[in-house]
Amino acid sequence: MTTRKKQPKDIDGKEKTNGSGKTETSTSQEQLMANKDEELLSYIERLKRLQAEFENYKKRMQRDITTISEHVSDQSIADFLPLFDNLRRAFDSLDENNATQAFVDGIKGVFGQFDQLLKQKGVAPIMAVGKLFDPAKHEALLSIESKEERNTIIEEFERGYSRNDRVLRPSKVKVSKGIIPPEEEES
Amino acid sequence: MREKIIGIDLGTTNSCVAVLEGGAPEVITNTEGERTTPSVIAFTDNNERLVGRLAKRQAITNPKRTIRSIKRQMGTDHLVKIEQDGKVEQYTPEQLSAMILQKLVKDAENHLGGKIKKAVITVPAYFNDSQRQATKDAGKIAGLEVMRIINEPTAASLAYGLEKNKEQTILVYDLGGGTFDVSILEIGDGVFEVIATDGDTHLGGDDFDQRIIDWLVGEFRKDSGIDLREDASAMQRLKDAAEAAKMELSTRKETTIHLPYITADASGPKHLEKKLTRARFEHMIDDMLQRTSSTVEATMREAKKSAEDIDQVVLVGGSTRIPKVQEIISSRIPGKINREINPDEVVAQGAAIQGGVLAGEVDEIVLLDVTPLTLAIETLGGVATPLIERNTTIPTEKAKTFTTAEDNQPSVEIHVLQGERKMAADNKSLGKFQLVGLPSTPRGVPQVEVTFNIDTDGILHVTAKDKATGKSSSITIKESSHLDDSEIDRMRREAETHAEEDDKKAKDVEARNQADQLVYSVEKSLSELGEKVSPEERGKIEDQLRSVRDKLSQDASADELRQAMEELSKQAEQLAEQAYKQTAAESPETPSDQEQETDREENDGDYVDAEYEEEK
User: Is B396–A56 a contact, with Cβ atoms under 8 angstroms apart?
Assistant: First the structure.
């Protein structure tokens, strides 16, 4: 390395007066600088290695995250398969004997199973009708004049769901504008 | 720690923020958990200010105080009047844009855990000075020091690292939610120059969704006589379904739109179920795609560039995921499309890179290389066992421990390979060397640690060391990372096309190696146990041993081998248990084969080698 051969001239000059012997100081200074250079180079090398290691760590984490989220997906899909099986059973039995009441009962059963599964997973419906509209939980599809107080939800088009206070899907709702006096009517 | 400079894509419909982390741009997720934020602002009844997804959700209840697409007004005198508590407040486009910026900055601060003061913001290439100044002022109002305003197409090119190449001409095709832009840039010495730009400020993915909605409404009317347009709830469901169908048609040729109970009339509930093929969808939006195509032509004419003059095409905006869009571009400018980076995020990523450069984060130390191809050694059965996977950032060091495959094997050969294929013979040989003087031991006992070390200059040092004797041997390979791009491409492509057969070959070898290992260990146990095994049991095991050996010599398929092995290993398990008890009692320092495998850390389970066997 060329840097190692650099002569530490400036410092050498200043240090001379304090030193016991000129040549000795100069050599030891030279040695010191050479050591420092070497140290510096080793730090740079370490920095580069650390940086590369960090990059590789990030790549690995990315891979791990993908794998984990795949597994999580797999698991939650697997939990829903029994419902699908039961729906299939319901339709198979309908083809065989056309027993409508039994079919409806079966579907009710599957619905109950579905409901239970969602509860187990901590899924809860978001309250809407009669509540004040909150864009954190609701999405407004319509806004109409009504006797209800302004911003009150008067109809739910599609139910929303949350899980552990996180919104899975907002409720899609109709919101009241209140009663608007004719002169203030929005154009 | 250097001060972070974030990159912001302040878009007409959506915005995105990214930051350079460890030399690579990373998109920041907002508090709603999304990677892009709708550019929508709202003032609510109780004087709350909403930005993003929440503002969008309440837009219908509050149309007069919800502002969209404010970007279209940047640089104009337009004032947005907002009535609040009986008073009318006026907001400039800069102030409103600042509110979007503040939301993005706050999300970035939450993510990074610190105050953000500086940013790079992107603008369309066609923005004039006053529009650029307005964007800068918006940043200032948001409390940001805008380090630079850069063009969106420039940012996209930066994200692809195109400035690193020599002089080039780049065409950026940006088809977003509601706007379409084409720009042609020239790069030389890291300087970007926009030589032509054109577009349509009202064309994008939302228009494509609308075409699907119109079609669905028409079809449903034909079938049932009901006009869904009067039903807000049904229309919302149609809109969601249309967007989902459009997205699905980017990866599939056909999709079915199921909307049960979409509406009802006197006769009962009505369901909507329609098949939409990709071809039909393409036909629906064809006129719009042709418009983008003629804009591309016009821009090229203006720039005085032919298709041959364009070196790279960069795709920006979610709608460029539509296969037909890509098809139209590549039919005009073949083989030059860059589309690896998420087109919704590529502009923000480029802005983050620019931010990193300005922060001094991108310098020699940070710009590290990666190994273009996997580096491996040849192991038992001619398999290439990787030590350093491709795309690993260098400098790096990886070590793995291997062992011998034969009893009393005096040496091992280390054959260094490069490439993505599973079998050694299909990869490029970089060099070979021997580690000699291994002590006489049964196979599987020696531990040879092979270390691959790629230094900053891309030079590969391979060392093999016998852990018992400390003897080592090494080789230095200079050209490991100096392949030209076409060779790298060729090797990767080959690996892809041969993936299946390679996999089968590797599996066959693995089965053979496992069978061989099993035979060996059972034989060893048998001889160690001697008379402790009853003649009857011994006879049974020997019969099964013979069957596996026969299959090995007949080159039986992996499945056949596995079947034979299964029977043998059942017996072997019992035997091994006995052997373990025996050896544990007699000589605790000599672990059985089984133990060796499980004892060591990072055991990848496949113990196979040419002359030695992988254990670690």
Answer: yes
